[in-house]
Amino acid sequence: MFGNRDRLANYDPNTFRKKIRAVTWLVLCAFFLLIARVWYLQVVRGDNLRQRSENNRIRIQEIKPLRGLIVDTRGDILVDNQPSFDISIIPEISKDIVDVLNRLTNLCDWAGDGLSLEKAFLKFGKTFAPVKVARNIGRDKLAVVETNSLDLPGVGIDVVPVREYIYGEMMAHLLGYVGEVTALELEGSAFSAYRGDDIVGKYGIEKYLDGFLKGRSGGEQVEVDAVGRRLNVLGRIEPVSGYNVVLNVDSDLQKVCWDAFLEEAGTAIVMDPRTGAVTAMISRPSFDPNLFNRGISGENWKNLTSNPLCPLQNKAISGQYPPGSTYKLIVAAAALEEGLITEKTQISCDGTYQMGDRTFRCWKKGGHGTVDLHRAIVESCDVYFYHLGDMLGVDKLAKYAERFGFGSKTGVSLPGEKDGLVPTKGWKLRRFRKPWQRGETTSLSIGQGFSLVTPLQLLRAYCALANGGTLYKPRLVKRIETADGQMIEEFPPESEGMIPISKEHIDILKYALWGAVNEPHGTGGELKRKEKDVCGKTGTSQVISLREDDEGQKGEIRYRFRDHALFVCFAPYENPVVAVIVIVEHGGHGGSVSATIARRIVDGYFRLAQERHMR
Question: Is 379 buried (19+), middle (13-18) or exposed (0-12) by CB count in 10 A?
Fold first, then answer.
């Protein structure tokens, strides 16, 4: 006991005090650091952390709107919406994104391209923003993902609408297709209101009227748990569906045109000459627009873009062809209006026309003999129109062609329309730095040479002849309305002026077109019906020029060098109600190929009209 007292007696209190002070300072420093950390978290980073905490508990989910329906003139649905299931992942909740994606790949038995690793890493600083990693999954994979949701933190299923193109290839070039907006598009002002995963129209009516069809997104404020499962909906703003688009197109008539073509490549258009309403338009070969709904595969895209018959091109508005003998009506109209000829003017055709040291041939070896204007159109005498072209000259002929609507877009409600080409002396000098040659007008007078038209331009010109002279703007869209039928906008017939030809001369040309179908030796005899009600004109446009000794070898010419076959017609002769153009690419002679297809379409049109009248 005395030994312990001695040890305490020898202990220096100052040493103890120093240790106490050191411990006190240590505690104070630790407390200060704790206070500083709390201040930093509460004051400096408070807003950010509160937002992250809120994001961890409450998520804003976008609700995609339904795109408007597209229906035909009788109300039949052409484009509808169907539910589709997408997989999204929230990076912050998933933590190990690669591990979660690997689990998904194994569970769903994807080959590796079903999930987008690249997109999953593109967080853009929004770690709680869902990122799409798979689209349009099947119901079997949906069940697998839902069943294993506890092992897939941050993974969610979104139900989104997807387009259904009911008629597939038959309507593809008219209706178009949709796709996800691209980064390049988002850089433009036209897409300032869009987000990175929005669906937009890419082609056809879907693109042209995207602003009406797209609708407005809604949203939900959703409370979730730690693994992202929905617990409660705190608020909701309903999406607004897009407007419905009603077309002038008749789906039954569209099918008639589609079936009439069989396997040929080309285009057919049906128009009402009284109003300019486009009631059918096909382009072949075509493609299935449903392939584009949720992203087309690389293999399918390669097959479409490498096809030499260009299935992605709408030949009705962007195909540009020499008009061939269908152009003779414009030459005849110009010569009549300029007073260079009358309907009784006769010209002798021996099968050739000499221009300097060059000989131009008529399609009929040996010639047609002496013919007047009526017979020249009925039998499509080339020599007669060689003379008329030489009388007119290229610039005067160009003036009339432009007044018939050639050389400029028609303004139809579709993207991608081409201008065609009406050549002049000035055009050639600018384009080739060479003067116009007289022989080039000779070729131009039968629709060859530099002249190019789109099928829609050519049909519109013939519609003007059919209706007495009014050049109508082609109308695909009839009206735009809300889901409950309230009118938003209507598109009535729109005249773009009169063609530069008198009624007397129009009647002369119409009668000649009637004769081309219904009189002996007419080139359009394939369209002769028992009613004798069709007026029409054949055309054969050269792809390459043949020497005279090559003519007998046409069957051996490679497909891509064969002539295009054209036929344009309207019916009935008095008060026409329908006009049709058919162009078969590399099809040969218009009277035997295109006229056969046009016959099927005209017969189908009147059959449908009769059936509906009897109902």
Answer: buried
Task: For residue range 336-371, list pLDDT tens digits in order.
Answer: 999 999 999 999 999 999 988 899 999 999 999 999
Backbone angles phi, psi at 239, to 5 degrees: -70, 160
Selected catalytic residue, list 84, 241, 251, 325: 325
Query: According to the model, what pLDDT value does residue 44 have?
Result: 65
Q: Are 240 and 215 in contact (CB under 8 A)?
A: yes
**What is the Cα–Cα distance from 495 to 512, expressed in whole angstroms?**
25
Indicate the SS3 state at residue 60.
strand
Whole-model pTM? 0.85
What is the per-residue DSSP string for 328-364?
Answer: HHHHHHHHHHTTS--TT--EEESSEEEETTEEEE-SS
Please give the Cα distance from 89 to 295 (Å, whole number). Answer: 19
Tell me if 595 sits within 8 A of 538, measured CB to CB: yes
Question: What is the DSSP track for 555-576?
Answer: GGS-GGGSPEEEEEEEE-SSS-
Nearest one of 153, 108, 167, 97 to 135, comparing CA atoms? 108
Structure tokens at 169: 């290839």
Contact 373, 332 (CB under 8 A): yes
- Could you tell me the residue ranges of all domains in the chain? 2-44, 59-247, 251-289+313-614
> CB 278: neighbour CB atoms within 10 A?
27
CB burial of 505-524 (b: ≥16 within 10 Å; e: otherwise) equals bbebbbbbbbbbbbbeebbb
Distance CA 466, CA 439 (A): 32
- 408 counts as catalytic: no
- What is the C-alpha separation between 207 and 1, in angstroms, rounded? 103
Q: Say if 59-247 and 251-289+313-614 have the same CATH topology.
A: no
What confidence tens digit (pLDDT) does each residue in 467-523 have? 999 999 999 999 999 988 899 999 999 999 999 999 999 999 999 999 999 999 999
- The CATH code of domain 251-289+313-614 reads 3.40.710.10
* Residue segments in the chain with a per-residue pLDDT below the cut of 50: 1-2, 112-114, 118, 120, 122-126, 548-554
**For helices 328-337 and 394-403, what crossing angle results, to 10°?**
100
The CATH topology of domain 59-247 is Penicillin-binding protein 2a (Domain 2) (3.90.1310)
- Between CA 248 and CA 250, with CA 249 as vertex, the angle to 5 degrees is 115
Outline where DSSP puts E strands in 138-198. 155-165, 177-180
Token duo for residue 401: 């062609």
